[in-house]
């Protein structure tokens, strides 16, 4: 970012940025910056910092090695598209899924919207949008002063089998955690979803994931019946085998008695 100053009166050798200057990221965290003097103009200062960062610069004009009155300027580096959302997690339940994510570590500007697209191989897309209700313009910096992150999660619940394909929700610019629950998911299907953040410069990098909800195991009551049926079947087979063995033993015993009776006569 190049800053240009106009000489209003007197002779100025160059402009100096004091170390008391500070730059703040769109997530209200102090970020580093670097100042370089322009080689082609003494009235230009080149400021290097993160995209979207707001800077409060204390600048003094220098003439004959004497600094003039310090002036404070609020400037903002031009926004770009955001990075990937951070800390994406997923919790798969019996017929639903819970998707959670946080703001990008490098937002590169004011996040004005988050979009999650959810679909399966057999169903149409569902779009869930979180829209910022109090985000300022892309060039404004006065709201960066004393903001704090809200410990409140922006949430949304979606019926996957419902007729609506689009869901709009709102969030405040200090909110950094988001939670979406998608309900009524048929089992044994592959599901896919993408998440991306948006600044006024466009959509950021897209996070993509997939999962599958498998059918649950047979309920314990049915499993018990299966075990009992197997035991009964096994008992019947064993009883039949024992009876057959006893039958052959008795038959052989009777034959022996018959033979003995014949030889005695």
TrEMBL record:
Keywords for the protein's UniProt record, in alphabetical order: Membrane, Transmembrane, Transmembrane helix
Residues of the Fibronectin type-III domain: 82-204
Annotated TM spans: 227-249
Superkingdom of source: Eukaryota
SUPFAM superfamilies, alphabetized: Fibronectin type III (SSF49265)
UniProt key word Membrane: yes
InterPro entries attached to this UniProt entry: FN3_dom, FN3_sf, Ig-like_fold
Protein name, per record: Fibronectin type-III domain-containing protein
Phylogenetic lineage: Eukaryota, Metazoa, Spiralia, Lophotrochozoa, Mollusca
């Amino acid at each position: 970012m190049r800053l240009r100053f106009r000489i209003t009166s007197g002779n100025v050798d160059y402009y100096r940025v004091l170390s008391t200057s500070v730059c703040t990221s769109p997530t209200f965290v102090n970020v580093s910056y670097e100042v370089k003097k322009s080689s082609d103009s003494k009235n230009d200062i080149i400021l290097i910092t993160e995209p979207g960062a707001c800077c409060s610069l204390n600048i003094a004009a220098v003439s004959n090695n004497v600094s003039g009155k310090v002036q404070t300027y609020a400037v903002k580096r031009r926004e770009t598209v955001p990075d990937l959302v951070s800390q994406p997690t997923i919790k798969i339940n019996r017929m639903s899924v819970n998707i959670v994510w946080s703001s990008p570590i490098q937002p590169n500007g004011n996040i004005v919207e988050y979009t999650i697209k959810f679909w399966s191989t057999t169903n149409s897309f569902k779009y869930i949008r979180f829209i910022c209700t109090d985000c300022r313009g892309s060039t404004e910096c006065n709201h960066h002063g004393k903001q704090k992150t809200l410990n409140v999660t922006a949430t949304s619940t979606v019926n996957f089998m419902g007729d609506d394909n689009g869901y709009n929700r709102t969030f405040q610019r200090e909110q950094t955690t988001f939670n979406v629950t998608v309900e009524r998911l048929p089992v044994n299907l592959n599901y896919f979803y993408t998440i991306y953040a948006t600044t006024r410069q466009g959509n950021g990098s897209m996070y993509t994931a997939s999962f599958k909800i498998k059918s649950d195991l047979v309920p314990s009551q049915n499993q018990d019946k299966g075990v009992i049926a197997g035991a009964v079947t096994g008992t019947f087979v064993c009883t039949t085998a024992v009876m057959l063995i006893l039958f052959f033993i008795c038959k052989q015993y009777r034959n022996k008695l018959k033979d003995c009776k014949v030889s005695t006569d």
